Structures are given as C-alpha cells and as structure tokens.
Write a sequence for this structure.
C-alpha cells in the first residue's frame, strides 16, 4: 500500500508557485441551457435572443441557443454591451443597405455612424420586454413603431443585372429597432447615448427551426435587464494634486455575489476608465497585480494578496489601502486583509475596515460652518442670515452679476458689470479683489479648483467667456491672478457653454450647453500644471434633459440640475448618465433660475418667486429663510 501511495504521488512537484486564476467576468453557469421552443418565427427568435442576452453566464450560453450550430462556435462578442430601451421592436428588413437614413449601430463609438438597411418592412413585433424600470427612473422615449405603409415581409434583393430575384425561402433578415441608452464599455464604465438603434440580424432555417447566422458583434440588452444583471460599484483613485479619493463608476456582473470582490479588485488593478484617464492618479501603478486569488479566509477576512507593490513608499501604501478598502466597501462587509507578497501591506496593520481610514474627502467638502452665499440686486449676501457680506461685494459698490466662494471660505471670485461688458475680480473674502485682465462681454459664474490641503488657499479659478473660451485663472510667482486658456477642442463642437461647474475634487467639469448637460474630464499635463484640457465629453440623458439652465454637484459622482420644465423642474443625474431621477415638483414655479447643492447639504433652488430647499428627491420643497425673488444661491466651490 505504501508503495502505491508513493507511486501515485511521483508526478506531483515538490514545490509549486501559487498564482491568480482569471476571474469569471461573465458569471458562472449554474444549470443546463434549454433549447428555444420549437416553431418560433424569425421575429420571435430575435426578440428572445435579445432577452436571453441578459444572462452572461458561460459566455452567453443562453443567447447562443438561438444561433445556428456554426454561429454558436464562431460567435465571439466584443467586451462592450449595448443597452437599449425596454420597448424595442423587431421587423423584417431588406438586405439592401444602400437606402434609408443613417443611424448608429449599438456597438459604435460616440459619433460613429452606419447606413440603415432600408427597404420594405413589415411583420413588426413591438411588445415590451423585461420588467418595468425602477420607480425613480425617468420615463424613456419609445422607439418608432412600424408605419402603416410597411408591407408584409418580402425580403427581396436585386441581382447585379437589375433583375428581381427572391432570396432563399429559408433565410430572413430581421432588424432590431429601439432607443439607444448607451453602452457598457470594455473597461466596465457606462457611456451614455441618445440615438436610435438599427441592428440587422440574419436568420436561416436549420433542421426546420429558424436560427441566427450572423449575431451582433456587441451584446444587445434592455436597460431593465442591464439593471438586474449588473451591479454598480465606485472604484476609487486620487485627485492629481491632493489626497482626495475620486469615484470612477463601473458595472460588474452581479452573479455570483461571492465573486464581486474579485471583480472589483480586477477593475482597480486595471486602472481608471477611459473617461478619467489623465484626470486622476493611481498609487497602485502599473506593476501591481494579484499573487493569488481574492478569497475569504477561515477567520472571515477578505484576503487581497498583492504583488508588485513592495517598492512603494509608506505613504503610497496608505493610499493603496484607501483605494482598496473604499472600492470594496459596497461589495463586502468583511475585514479586508491587504497583503504584499504574504506580509501586511502596511506594517503592523493587516486587516482594515472603512471606519479605520482617515477622511480623504475633507479637502473637497465645504466646511460645515460656511452656510453659503447668494447674489441679489447686484450684491452678495449670506445664505444663512441674509446679511450682506463685508466689503464692496456686499455694500453695492460693485455691481455683482455672479460670484463663487472658495471651498475654504476665505476667497471670493466676483463677476461684476464693467463699462464694456463684465470684469472678473478675485481676492480675499471681504476685499475688493484684484481685477483680472480678461476682456469679455459675457462670463459664466466662476468656479474654484480646490486647494491641495484644507489649510492652503486655492490658486485656481475657471470661467467661460463668450460661451466658447474656457479660461483658467491662476496665481503667478508674484501672487497675481493671470489667465490661461483651457483646451476645449472636444467641447466646442457641442455648442456654446452657458454654465460650468468644476467638481469639488477638481477632476471633472459639468456644463450646460444649449440646454443639455455635458460632463468632461479635467486632464492636466504631467509636466506643466498650466496645460489643461477638457477630455471625453459625455452628454447625459440627451433625449430627456434638453432644457437645463443651471447645475451643481450633489457629490463627486452626481449632479442636481435646474430646468425650464414644469413637470421636472429639478432632477438628479449620475455622472455617467445612466438614469434620471426627478425631485418632487410641488411648490416650484417654472422656469428655474439657479441651483446649488453639496454633499450632506440640502439642495437650494431659485424659481420665479424666490428660494426653495429640499433634502431628498421625494421631499416637498420648503420656502428658504431668504426669500428674495431675485436671489441666486451658491455653496462654496
């Protein structure tokens, strides 16, 4: 017996190095996938294929069941997922791609177009699919139903000689039509869209059943199925010049739940999403990786065994701890055990909970003793007691059009009337401030870039002149405020900027452009702080939100928006634009004139009658203590 045991173990090496296994990004198969019901017509096959695509287990095995045998083996969908409206239609289409208006395919990059495959269409199946969306979600547009002139399926093609020939009776072309909500990119970030989807799918009879022979390159699912299948997680990086954590919203497959922590760690190790690349820094760097898999230990801790971080400084190790623990807090309640090549990442501190971390948001949060300010009648007043602030801005010596208070509260930027337009003044709170050399007939309300630490003063203010020039105002070596242009080449094609607010961590800019809400990354050149660009602009909820007048940051990853709409005067939208939540509209009289918001503070909005305040979406708007009909409120930032 002993000889048998020795013989059986002879092939086992004396020592092997553990390594991290690839994580299952698309779920795991839990049971066999049934074949589609027999006798389905082509429209039903395509519709059920879209519905089955909501299940990513085993590389979309449920959706593959609707493909031909050859297509099942060959289909290799890319890493992006196209998200469409719940209400979509399937219609018979023509193979002629030369006619019809241009539409965007669901796997296209923003702005990329394709020609619609036109021709006679009929046999439309336009029933809704999937459950209703969340009650807080905004109503979405309904795609165009089949027109009364669309004919029964003919699916004819024209040979090169111009004669008409019928296609094989065992082939059909079906077009999926719907509103494009956006797509889940390969980096697991959501990119919004507001165009139409026209996706052509070819089917052929195989063993008497219709099966898809050319499935879409990108997986196509409805927004309700997306909400059920994917779980939103903020993955954290740092602002470029401060120790402020910045959330980067991502979406991971929710099932199995036990695999969520590993998926989050994988995202963090891969670095920031394309939309934030260059706007944040990553202390983990390019060398960090997992030595073995993320696992739950016998004593209940979540072990994250890192390698490639042994050369990091003590300070960077502390930042890495903050990144990992904060990123994991939405997917686990366990202690997080952070290891570097088997030893604690931070000496003498092996296990971590979120409550043990220092505050990494302090420098990006207005001080609680600053109640905010408001402009009214050319003056600046306290939003707390209504008293005019000290200095020319409060006395009326300066005809103030708009103003902004720094996060620390000790600086003020003011746009005032001038002989030939407007003038920008920046200086200590209560002083007249320095007149900035900046000729302009119009200027958006200033917005402050946060200081590196809470104890320092801010050195940078932004505004937009003439609607198209984004200006960065910074202090020079002598302490004077001087102007520099921000590269806004990616923004200019969208239109003139009516409002611009920097996030209080300084990494994003939110803008109102022609009534639409646009968010872009603030990218600073690594070698020159003065070289700044606005990159990767995203239009949020473009179909639903086209009458915005003002906005502000409720947090680092969400905006409160004031509009001209009577039914939705105030809304909240996340920075990726996936959903739109309406505030209660009671008591407000459209249109709105201004809005301010900040983390942990009530939202204050200005309508035709004065100021109103609400702490949450469902709250009835209450009259603010300051009731001036011309007041426009603003919190520091």
């Amino acid at each position: 017996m002993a000889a048998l045991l020795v013989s059986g173990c002879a092939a086992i090496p004396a020592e092997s190095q553990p390594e991290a296994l690839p994580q299952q990004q698309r779920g795991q198969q839990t049971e066999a996938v049934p074949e589609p019901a027999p006798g389905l017509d082509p429209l039903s096959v395509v519709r059920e294929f879209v519905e089955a695509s909501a299940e990513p287990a085993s590389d979309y095995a449920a959706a593959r069941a609707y493909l031909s045998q050859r297509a099942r083996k060959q289909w290799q969908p890319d890493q992006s997922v196209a998200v469409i409206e719940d209400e979509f239609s399937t219609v018979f289409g023509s193979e002629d791609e030369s006619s019809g208006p241009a539409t965007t395919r669901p796997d296209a990059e923003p702005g990329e177009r394709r020609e619609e495959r036109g021709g006679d269409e009929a046999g439309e199946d336009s029933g809704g699919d999937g459950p209703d969306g969340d009650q807080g979600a905004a109503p979405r547009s309904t795609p165009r139903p089949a027109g009364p002139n669309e004919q029964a399926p003919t699916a004819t093609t024209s040979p090169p000689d111009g004669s008409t020939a019928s296609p094989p009776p065992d082939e059909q072309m079906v077009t999926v039509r719907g509103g494009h909500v956006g797509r889940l990119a390969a980096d697991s970030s959501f990119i919004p869209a507001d165009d139409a989807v026209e996706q052509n799918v070819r089917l052929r009879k195989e063993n008497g059943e219709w099966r898809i022979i050319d499935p879409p390159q990108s997986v196509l699912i409805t927004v309700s199925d997306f909400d059920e299948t994917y779980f939103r997680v903020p993955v954290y990086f740092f602002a470029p010049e401060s120790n402020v954590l910045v959330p980067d919203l991502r979406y991971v497959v929710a099932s199995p739940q036990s695999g969520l922590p590993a998926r989050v760690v994988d995202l963090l190790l891969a670095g920031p999403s394309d939309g934030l690349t260059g706007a944040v820094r990553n202390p983990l760097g390019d060398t960090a990786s997992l030595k073995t898999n993320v696992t739950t230990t016998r004593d209940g801790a979540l072990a994250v065994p890192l390698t490639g971080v042994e050369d990091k400084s003590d300070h960077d190790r502390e930042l890495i701890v903050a990144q990992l623990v904060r990123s994991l807090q939405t997917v686990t309640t366990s202690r997080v055990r952070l290891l570097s090549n088997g030893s604690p990442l931070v000496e003498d501190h092996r296990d971590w909970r979120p409550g043990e971390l220092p505050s990494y948001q302090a420098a990006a949060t207005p001080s609680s003793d600053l109640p905010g300010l408001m402009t009214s009648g050319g003056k600046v007043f306290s939003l707390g007691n209504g008293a005019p602030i000290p200095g020319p801005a409060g006395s009326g010596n300066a005809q103030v059009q708009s103003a902004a208070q720094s996060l620390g509260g000790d600086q003020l930027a003011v746009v005032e009337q001038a002989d030939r337009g407007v003038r920008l003044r920046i200086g200590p709170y209560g002083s007249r401030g320095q007149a900035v050399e900046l000729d302009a007939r119009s200027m958006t309300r200033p917005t402050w870039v946060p200081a590196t630490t809470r104890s320092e003063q801010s050195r940078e203010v932004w505004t937009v002149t003439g609607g198209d020039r984004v200006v960065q105002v910074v202090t020079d070596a002598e302490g004077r405020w001087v102007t520099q242009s921000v590269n806004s080449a990616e923004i200019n094609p969208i239109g003139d900027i009516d409002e611009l607010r920097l996030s209080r961590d300084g990494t994003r800019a939110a803008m109102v452009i022609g009534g639409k809400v646009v968010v872009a990354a603030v990218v600073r050149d690594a070698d020159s702080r003065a070289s700044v660009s606005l990159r990767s602009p995203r239009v949020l909820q473009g179909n639903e939100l086209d009458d915005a007048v003002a906005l502000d940051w409720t947090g680092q990853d969400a905006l409160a928006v004031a509009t001209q709409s009577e039914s939705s005067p105030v809304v909240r939208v996340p920075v990726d634009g996936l959903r739109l939540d309406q505030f209660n509209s009671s008591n407000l009289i459209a249109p709105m004139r201004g809005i301010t918001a900040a983390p942990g503070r009530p939202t204050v909005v200005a309508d035709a009658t004065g100021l109103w305040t609400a702490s949450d979406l469902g709250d009835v708007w209450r009259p603010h203590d300051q009731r001036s009909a011309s007041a426009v409120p603003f919190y520091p930032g």
Summary: Residues 1-18, 21-30, 97-105, 107-165 have pLDDT under 50 and may be disordered. The radius of gyration is 28 Å. The helical segments are 2-8, 42-52, 57-64, 69-74, 223-229, 260-270, 314-328, 392-395.
